[in-house]
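Progress note, sequence design subtask.
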């Protein structure tokens, strides 16, 4: 027994399936975080350093190119969230159930 004091937790922590789950979940989380940071700070960088690009009007209307880019950033955020949720509800939940099944 180590620091946890619970042999079941120790067995789960040593399980190769749990280690696989942890690795896959962490890798996906950091990848999606990096993508979101690049997209968000890219947009903020455009605001800071190239306002004239974002201020270009679209067609004959009063809207500028910055509006669809901002909406695209919001859609991108929702898409990343949906991707994570789908993956968590399928692969990660399956692995978690397998870990619990193997460690009664």
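Output:
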């Amino acid at each position: 027994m180590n620091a946890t004091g619970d042999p079941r937790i120790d067995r789960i922590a040593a399980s190769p399936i749990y280690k696989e789950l942890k690795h896959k979940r962490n890798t996906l989380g950091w990848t999606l975080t990096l993508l979101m940071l690049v997209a968000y700070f890219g947009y903020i960088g455009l605001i800071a350093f190239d306002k004239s690009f974002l201020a270009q009007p679209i067609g004959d209307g009063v809207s500028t190119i910055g509006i669809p880019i901002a909406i695209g950033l919001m859609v991108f955020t929702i898409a990343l969230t949906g991707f994570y949720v789908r993956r968590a509800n399928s692969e990660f939940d399956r692995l978690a159930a397998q870990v619990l099944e193997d460690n009664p």
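Residues 66-102 form the longest helix (37 residues). Work on this subtask will continue into the next period as scheduled.
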